[in-house]
Amino acid sequence: MPFVFEGVDHVQLAAPEGSENQARKFFAELLGMEEVEKPEALKKRGGVWFQCGIQQIHIGIEKDFSPAKKAHPALVVKNIDQLMSHLSKKEAAYQKDDKLPNAKRIYLEDPFGNRIEILEWQS
User: Fold this and answer.
1) pTM of the model
2) Please, are residues 49 and 33 in contact by the beta-carbon 8 Å criterion?
3) pLDDT in tens, 51-93
4) Most buried residue, 21, 32, 49, 102, by CB count within 10 Å?
5) Ordered domains of the chain (ranges, CATH)
6) DSSP character for 92?
7) Sequence-ordered list of residues with C-beta below 8 angstroms from that of 5, at least 6 positions apart, any chain
8) Residue 78, SS3?
């Protein structure tokens, strides 16, 4: 084929109107992601963007918001045990899952009820 997919640029998650500060507390303060400034032409739509490795997570505002309970991003992390310790200290709920061979993984929800998977591949 004359075209090639090179990867994923970003994942967009929906959130209710006026929830940008909650998103900042979760993605920036709790998970340590850096906020990315949105282009001026897109700021009027609301929402907030975060850097996650070389990809981004975009939190988009949705008027009739409903959380994604099944569809979800899967984020790769180094030192998942340290992340779990950090989340426990911050009293952030998560669930361990051992069903994926060669991976340690957890699930948590963002403040809006969207499912987030975080995993570390084991060698």
Assistant:
1) 0.94
2) no
3) 999 999 999 999 999 999 999 999 999 999 999 999 999 999 9
4) 49
5) 10-121 (3.10.180.10)
6) -
7) none
8) coil
